[in-house]
Inverse folding.
């Protein structure tokens, strides 16, 4: 059995054994590495020691030879016996043997242990080797060869043999100590690792177990190591994804849907009342010139996302009645059942005076908070009277929530930056309400947000929420850091909660999405070919042109100008696209009462004229700027007709246009060019992701999109479609409501415990 099999998972193991098994995974390689090191180091040390001693013995030999040379020459001259000198010399315990060679290479004298068969030439060769070692009777010796000069020339050569066995003994000692040192070092590393791992592991496991039990959302988990806090947040995210994935694989029908959301409401929220608050209403009644009343869906990401959820949840939606015919469509309680003809939920309309709308909506929300949060290089404007209206209108809507509530603990879904103060206002009147606030736009860093004169009031208002949702973790992080900078609040980073005034708020990311079209709905769609033919006919686009589209509100954050610049650059760089390419931009008029928006529209019109003047023909302009409202059906046909869809927001919380485009392409064709500054870019890497501020990069991406082979388009689109299908708007609402249900349950249990204690 191999080692990995020995340490494979066994469900019957105790936690202690499991920890030990995990540590073994570390210790086994450690021991192997240390053993390998010792195996390589020992011969290296031996060689080194031998070379050091050989050098020493060479020097010693030279010293001995120098000392003997005079006596040798003298003895030769006077005919005295050399043998006696040599025999005396080898009484030294290190010097083992001496040989005396004639200049012609014959051995003339040798001491007792000098090998009889060893020739002078052989001795010279051994001495010239690196180790200069050989074995003689009695053990290994080091050989050195020294020329001795006489009065009349060379007198002979002295061969000295020094004992080497002591080196072997020292080498053994060194080896022993080296192995002991490596073993001790290994043991110390292993001990420290095991102890630290044991401690961290326990903390981590108990933290993770707490998370798995659903604890840790609002109250501290068991003492998990704080450095693992970001991991815990990630783990919680991943667990949710895994849960979704599991459901999808186990029961494909369990991908989030209206039915699944309804069942969550019935089971986990026990049919509790759901109230939605937003500025924009889901349907507007408009009085036509001929006196008739028409209903239309406004161009709003918020409405696109929340309306299907509301159809599934029923309940009441409170919004500003801003349509010219709205008052004529409501009952005496200002309510109207929606959607028209189906009546799944109620819309309660609130009326604002012109001053209120000007100050709260156009002023503080759209000239203050909108540019403040988008950081799109338009200066936010803060006026005292706008702030006053903002406060008033928030109070008006908060009162309406309280009036519409049928119990003291409804579930209130507050939408967007128009109502930053409302959560705390509702909390004061309905302390037991579950308030979920979703911020549909980005949240900037603390420095950028800090310029708002009422920053503390805004943060305090938002912290009246039970759950505060943003599209991305990045926005959550920015919000938490902002609170940390400007309020005295307790922040538990590991659970992403902020406790302010004794009340906790969970700050969590819930990426918003769209309703995935039902198969029966998609079956009714006209084919992409038909949509294309209609578009070409309606806009008189020359046959054979490739078409890119953009669909946005007319807003400076959407990067429409940058997109037009990229189209212009494409035609400069690639003349082959001239007369072969048309760009259709739908720009739904928005916030036209604001100067910034009017000026932006003029800039767009000028850019369109410039490009058409340079590259278009009077009967075939390159850019078609359609600055009017388009309904859902028209937009869907445009998506199906296009070769490319361009989403180049300079900053966007999520952006739903890209998701709608993908949902419309059941033919798995078409290419998405997507700004990296849209929250959606994190979920949709198969798009051609660009920096819209970089005109070259965007123009190149457009060229790449127009020349992308069909197979690659299909591959990318299929993957995008599976993401958007799964991560749909019901999942967005479902995850938020499931968190709300968990917190409500906890609240009820703690209320019960409290009552028992008092009793
Ligand atoms: O992006 C924030 C948002 O509220 C979106 O939901 C929507 O697309 C847009 O602003 C609507 O703006 P308005 O309601 O001002 O037209």
């Amino acid at each position: 059995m191999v080692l990995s099999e020995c340490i494979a998972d066994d469900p019957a193991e105790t936690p202690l054994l499991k920890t030990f098994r995990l540590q073994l995974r570390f210790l086994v390689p450690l021991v192997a590495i240390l053993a390998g090191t010792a195996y390589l180091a020992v011969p290296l040390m031996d060689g080194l020691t031998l070379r050091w001693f050989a050098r020493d013995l060479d020097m010693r030999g030279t010293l001995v030879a120098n000392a003997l040379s005079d006596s040798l020459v003298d003895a030769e001259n006077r005919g005295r016996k050399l043998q006696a000198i040599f025999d005396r010399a080898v009484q030294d315990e290190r010097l083992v043997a001496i040989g005396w060679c004639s200049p012609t290479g014959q051995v003339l004298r040798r001491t007792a242990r000098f090998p009889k068969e060893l020739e002078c030439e052989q001795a010279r060769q051994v001495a010239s080797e690196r180790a200069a070692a050989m074995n003689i009777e009695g053990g290994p010796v080091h050989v050195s060869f020294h020329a001795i000069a006489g009065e009349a020339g060379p007198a002979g050569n002295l061969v000295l043999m020094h004992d080497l066995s002591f080196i072997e003994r020292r080498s053994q000692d060194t080896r022993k100590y080296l192995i002991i040192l490596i073993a001790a070092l290994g043991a110390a590393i292993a001990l420290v690792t095991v102890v630290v791992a044991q401690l961290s592991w326990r903390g981590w496991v108990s933290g993770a177990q707490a998370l798995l039990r659903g604890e840790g959302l609002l109250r501290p988990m068991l003492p998990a190591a704080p450095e693992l806090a970001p991991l815990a947040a990630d783990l919680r995210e991943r667990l949710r994804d895994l849960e979704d994935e599991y459901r999808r694989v186990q029961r494909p029908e369990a991908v989030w849907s209206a039915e699944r959301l309804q069942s969550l409401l019935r089971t986990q929220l026990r049919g509790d009342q759901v109230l939605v608050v937003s500025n924009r209403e889901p349907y507007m009644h408009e009085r036509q010139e001929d006196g008739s009343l028409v209903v239309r869906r406004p161009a709003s990401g918020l409405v696109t996302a929340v309306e299907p959820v509301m159809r599934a949840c029923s309940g009441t939606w409170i919004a500003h009645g801003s349509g010219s015919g709205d008052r004529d469509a409501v009952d005496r309680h200002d309510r109207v059942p929606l959607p028209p003809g189906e009546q799944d939920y109620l819309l309660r309309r609130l009326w604002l005076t012109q001053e209120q709308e000007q100050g709260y909506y156009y002023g503080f929300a759209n000239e203050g908070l909108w540019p403040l949060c988008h950081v799109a290089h338009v200066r936010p404007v803060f006026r005292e009277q706008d702030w006053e209206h903002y406060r008033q209108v928030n109070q008006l809507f908060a009162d309406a929530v309280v009036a519409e509530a049928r119990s003291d603990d409804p579930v209130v879904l507050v939408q967007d930056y128009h109502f930053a103060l409302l959560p705390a206002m509702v909390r004061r009147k309905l302390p037991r309400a579950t308030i979920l606030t979703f911020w549909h736009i980005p949240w900037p860093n603390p420095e950028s947000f800090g310029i708002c004169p009422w920053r503390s009031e805004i943060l305090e208002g938002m912290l009246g929420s039970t759950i505060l949702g943003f599209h991305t973790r990045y926005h959550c992080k920015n919000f938490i850091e902002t609170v940390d900078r400007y309020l005295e609040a307790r922040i538990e980073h590991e659970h992403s909660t902020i406790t302010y005034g004794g009340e906790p708020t969970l700050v969590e990311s819930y990426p918003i999405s769209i309703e995935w079209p039902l198969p029966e709905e998609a079956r009714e769609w006209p084919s992409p070919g038909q949509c294309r033919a209609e578009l070409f006919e309606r806009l008189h686009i020359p046959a054979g042109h490739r078409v890119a589209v953009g669909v946005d509100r007319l807003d400076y954050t959407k990067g429409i100008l940058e997109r037009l610049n990229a189209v212009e650059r494409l035609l400069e760089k690639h003349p082959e696209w001239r007369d072969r390419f048309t760009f259709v931009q739908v720009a739904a008029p928005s916030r036209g009462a604001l100067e910034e928006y009017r000026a932006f529209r003029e800039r767009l019109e000028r850019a369109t004229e410039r490009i058409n003047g340079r590259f278009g023909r009077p009967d075939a302009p390159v850019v078609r700027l359609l600055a009017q409202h388009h309904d859902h059906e028209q937009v869907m046909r445009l998506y199906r007709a296009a070769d490319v869809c361009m989403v180049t927001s300079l900053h966007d919380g999520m952006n739903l246009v890209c998701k709608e485009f993908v949902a419309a392409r059941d033919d798995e064709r078409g290419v998405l060019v997507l700004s990296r500054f849209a929250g959606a870019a994190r979920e949709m890497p198969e798009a051609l992701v660009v920096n819209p501020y970089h005109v070259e990069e965007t123009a190149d991406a457009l060229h790449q999109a127009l020349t992308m082979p069909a197979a690659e388009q299909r591959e990318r689109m299929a993957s995008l479609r599976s993401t958007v299908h799964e991560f749909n708007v019901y999942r967005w609402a479902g995850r938020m409501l499931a968190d709300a249900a968990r917190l409500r349950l906890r609240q009820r249990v703690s209320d019960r415990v409290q009552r028992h204690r008092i009793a």
In short: Confidence is low (pLDDT under 50) at residues 1-12, 213-224.
